[in-house]
Amino acid sequence: MQTKEQTVNEKIEALWEKRPILISGPCSAETEEQLLATAQQLANTGKIDMLRAGIWKPRTKPGMFEGVGAKGLPWLLQAKKLTGLPTAVEVATAKQVQDALTFDVDVLWVGARTTVNPFSVQEIADALRGVDVPVLIKNPVNPDMELWSGAVERIARAGIKKIGLIHRGFSSYGNIEYRNAPMWHLAIDMKLKYAGMPFINDPSHICGKRDTLLDIMQKAIDLDYDGFIIESHIDPDNAWSDAKQQVTPQRLAEMFNSVTWRKEDINSAAFHAALEKLRQQINQLDDELIQILGQRMKIAENIGTYKKENNITILQTNRWNEIMDRAIAKADKAGLSKEFITKYFDAVHMESINRQKKVLDS
Ligand code: PEP
Ligand code: MN
């Protein structure tokens, strides 16, 4: 899609509609040579739509590499001239917004450590008033969807028309599988809530290490994400930040080749007919499940009446353990996981208890 004749503005317009949107570049701009070489190699793959680079790095602890600062902005401009790739930078303050715009950065992003702070997000929003620049908003560090949508609303109220979302996972205590747990269901809620906005996955910060990137990428494709932002570096092992999770531009291209890209929809009538039939079956079963759950709750209420008359507690631990053991054994035979059936029965049990409580209180 990147012809030499296209201006960067036209590219951004096209990019916003393109699927998948592929953004890559180093976690941090370190030196001019490193940035230009990474950008050139990324452009050579022919797969990348935009160059990312951290200029100001929010680090958890002081004394670590905190980014090269504004002196890296001319390098980024140079990389754009060299490759034709639009550029993206993380901003956390009004000054950083102004500096980035002065050096023609094409897309700004709000980092996870900034989305958590409404003061900072508002400062960025105020600095953006009257400016026409796309903004990508990462999920907050903690799984608080209200903070994420709050940030979207602040940036939107500043008049920014092109807003996109980046899912980079959530920090959680004791998690060893991921650097930031994906908690897909929360992200998908946001994706559905802001259906018109590009919804981009950041496998690098979810995984924290190279070897699981592909799994996360495939999962995001299967869940109909609109694109990726993935960190890449000419010499990942010696990167000044996030060394473990970066890949070479060449490896990135291989990864893009090895995942299975899917379409949300295809136009074949036979496919639609088959899908429609299966969806009707699902609807039918869902209707029956709801009916049956309603009946189950009515019986629970009847039990509540007996408990009230005999003045006994709602929660009968032995009975509940018996129900769970029975359900888990049956679920296993039906191909349902213990984890799923436990969650499902916990929800059913809660509702049952609430209904019985109402009876006891009446
Ligand atoms: C980054 O993209 O390099 C970064 C700092 O990410 P996050 O805000 O997701 O931690
Ligand atoms: Mn990083």
Task: Walk me through the structure.
This protein is α/β, with parallel strands linked by helices. It has two domains: 4-258, Alpha-Beta Barrel (TIM Barrel); 269-361, Chorismate Mutase Domain, subunit A (Up-down Bundle), CATH 1.20.59. Helix content is 52%, strand content 9%. It has an eight-stranded parallel β-barrel with strand order 1-2-3-4-5-6-7-8, surrounded by five helices. It is elongated and about 80 Å long. 34% of the residues are buried. It binds phosphoenolpyruvate and manganese (II) ion. Manganese (II) ion binds next to loops. Residues 27, 231, 241-242 line the site of manganese (II) ion.
Brief sketch in words of this structure:
This protein has 362 residues and is of the alpha/beta class.
Neighbour order of strands in the largest sheet? 1-2-3-4-5-6-7-8
Number of spatially distinct domains:
2
Kindly report how far apart the N and C termini lie: 67 Å
Average per-residue pLDDT, rounded, comes to: 94
What general form does the structure show?
elongated
Low-confidence stretches: none
Strand content: 5-15%
What are the salient characteristics of this protein?
362 residues, alpha/beta, TIM Barrel, Chorismate Mutase Domain, subunit A, 8-stranded parallel barrel, 8 strands, 52% helix, binds phosphoenolpyruvate, binds manganese (II) ion
